[in-house]
Amino acid sequence: MARVKKRLSIVLVDDHMPAREVIVGLIRAEPGFQLLTVSAELEALSTTIQETRPDLVLLNLARKGRGRLTFAAALHGSAPEIPVVVMGLAPRREDVQALVRTGVAGFIMANAPFEVHLRTILLVAQGNRVLPPDLTHGLFIQLRRRYRAPQSPSILPSLRLSVLQARS
User: Fold this and answer.
1) pLDDT band at 144 (very low <50, low <70, confident <90, very high)
2) DSSP secondary-structure letter at 95?
3) Residue 99 lies in a domain
4) Cβ burial, residue 133 (10 Å; 0-12/13-18/19+)
5) What is d(CA 25, CA 6) in angstroms, rounded to the nearest whole number?
6) Which residue has the higher pLDDT, 113 or 145?
7) What is the average pLDDT value for the chain, to the nearest integer?
8) What mean pLDDT comes out for the span 32-54?
9) Distance from first CA to last CA of the chain, Å, rounded?
10) Total of domains in the chain
């Protein structure tokens, strides 16, 4: 996998202290990454993000409620060029769809090893969209149910009629 050439500037929004400490340590140990700021407060970060213009925002989904969705939508509205990667437990498919509509570019499952974090961050920084297999399967099922192909009328009766007419 090709590496991003410059140091990738990252803002981490994480309200789950144990996870935040681990992620901070891992990101700081990665030579190609620069951690600009870390916060648990979504509201205070809007100004920081506008001022620092990071290459990427990592957003943890530990907190319940719609705050993260509102934050992702507001960030995308004010800085659509800054991709957001959501980390956290397996969210409901509806949450994933809503987050994608707000402009979220990637998802990392909570149980993912740090190599997956790195790969997702790098892919998103290169302009890709990343959806983990755990979420992809459920979304395909939901899409299949929503957009079923129309049932084509059976051609058997008209074929039978053609055969009968040909015999006469």
Assistant:
1) confident
2) H
3) yes
4) exposed
5) 20
6) 113
7) 78
8) 83
9) 68
10) 1
Tally: H helices and E strands in the chain? 7, 5
Q: What is the mean pLDDT of residues 132-139?
A: 77
Query: Residue for token digits 């400490």?
Result: 21
Closest CA to 36 of 18, 59, 16, 12: 12
Instruction: Pick from 13-17, 76-80, 111-115, 153-157 the range whose average pLDDT is largest.
Output: 111-115
Closest CA to 46 of 70, 65, 63: 70
Range of the domain at 150: 8-167
The CATH number for 73's domain is 3.40.50.2300
> Closest Cα partner for 107 from 124, 125, 82, 94?
124
Q: How is 26-84 classified by DSSP, letter by letter? A: HHHHSTTEEEEEEES-HHHHHHHHHHH--SEEEEE--S-SSHHHHHHHHHHHH-TTS-E
Structural domain contains residue 1: no
**Of 9-18, 117-126, 147-156, highest mean pLDDT:** 117-126
